Amino acid sequence: MTAACASVSKNPSAVDASGNSVSTLIPNKSYNLTPAVSLSVENILLGAALYWAVDPLAPNWQLEQTPLGADRVRISLRKKRFASGGDGEAVQLLARRAEQIARDGGYAGYTLTEYTEGVESTLPLAQRVAQGVIQLNR
Questions:
Q1: d(CA 60, CA 73)
Q2: Cα torsion for 65, 68, 71, 76, to the nearest 10°?
Q3: pTM: predicted TM-score of the whole model, two decimal places
Q4: For the chain, what are the domain ranges?
Q5: For 93-116, how does the pLDDT look when each residue is reduced to its tens digit (9 = 90+)?
């Protein structure tokens, strides 16, 4: 880390106890958005990292489907780590996707033959998961 700090240009406003100027990885600067509002570089970087981790515009669930033969399909769902609500949506999403698969394939309907829901203990946080197998009906 000291090698990274040494390669960053020196910020004259950052000094140690002896009065020597020191290098900082994040510059000690603020950007004035309006006369009353300013943001420091560290707050901007923190906000960007938080937005990247949470991503409020991303869908709450990731769906994956796997064919299990001619008329059977497994639908797997994984919830994003940071979400606001949506814990009871899995079965609704599975049903919606099953209806779409049946309709797009020209089937009369489907039968849900298996359904499981649970929590996987993953790092850094656990994730809700669900899985179902559908039988497509002609």
A1: 22
A2: -30
A3: 0.60
A4: 2-54, 61-137
A5: 999 999 999 999 999 999 999 999
